[in-house]
């Protein structure tokens, strides 16, 4: 997977090789999507070349020292892969209810900073970040700089440990029998191929579960890891993407924020303004649903163009249910943001030049990490797990780790373990 964790793994492995003065190992990234990014990816369309909408994570927070050091390196590569995301770009939207009416009030987090709230500390340390030029830039730049070979639109359906040769054989295609190569180390940079969710989306047994069953000698550490991964539930989110031009684009572009966190609405969780095409007069809008709303609307499917439907073979979903989802999210936007933000016609589907296009993130946010860093390494099988389902919930400083931060941190740890497995960097410490 070429999400945040897999991309970090590739980037860090090549950095470690350079630092150790050894040739970089050949890294191959298999990704079922069309491009790097995973849940931190950017939606594009051929229709509008300047259109780019961050429809997964729009930004992230980081406090772990190793992750901050990585982010510093990523700001120094050319072109930079990340930049600080200022809290002034985030607003909170809350309902104030009187007996007869509900009013939605938007407050800026930068205003709170001025009052000396705890938000100020985050702002000063500059610890929120965004990918450059879009969220996907974070993964794109790491993959490019790493020199890894990429195989997009490729679903790894079979992973099999060959004990005699001490290699992992990978297979793709519909049956998993199409050879994808043999590798000294396997980094599973997604929970999906090890989770029961795989069976409902792609059918058949999860590839890593199957691999454990095929081992001639059972590996208790792997079995325990698989049990823990499968026990973790992840909350879904529905994303709706639209784009506006003309007066509607100007109205959205004029707002002094990028992300609105909505508190207290049953349907709408977040509104994200995308200004990547602003110079060409195009503004994107991404609406994220609440988890509860996404859970109750599973029949809407994964969305046209999603890797799950396109190549994974997941059910197409019901178009009436998708219409209903689109309608509900747009009605919520009108209720929560209009007229305080823009005029009603500037938030309507009729004035959108692109979309609304729905995408279901079936496992947007894991409820808690499944594996500690040490449980994510199976040295006897030269296997490492990486992703936001690996690591600690809280940093050494006592701060809650963000999801992207966990993915970054686990990619760093996995690369450290892999370099030891490849035996060119003894006693490596992060
Ligand atoms: C709507 C939404 C909002 C979010 N908001 C935030 C936020 O504000 N802050 C924050 O910190 N985090 C947020 N997150 C979470 C964040 O996006 C994720 O934690 C992070 O991107 C996870 O990265 P990852 O590499 O662990 O996994 P993923 O991004 O899931 O990457 C795994 C990759 O592996 C690929 N893959 C899986 N199986 C296979 C296979 N068999 N063959 C080939 N490829 C495969 C997948 O296609 C995917 O690209 C949000 C997520 C969503 C969806």
Automatic annotation (TrEMBL):
Pfam families found in the cross-reference section = NAD_binding_8
Query: Which PANTHER family does its entry note?
Result: FAD/NAD(P)-BINDING OXIDOREDUCTASE FAMILY PROTEIN, FAD_NAD(P)-BINDING OXIDOREDUCTASE FAMILY PROTEIN
Q: What is this protein called?
A: Amine oxidase domain-containing protein
Q: Which organism is it from?
A: Erythrolobus madagascarensis
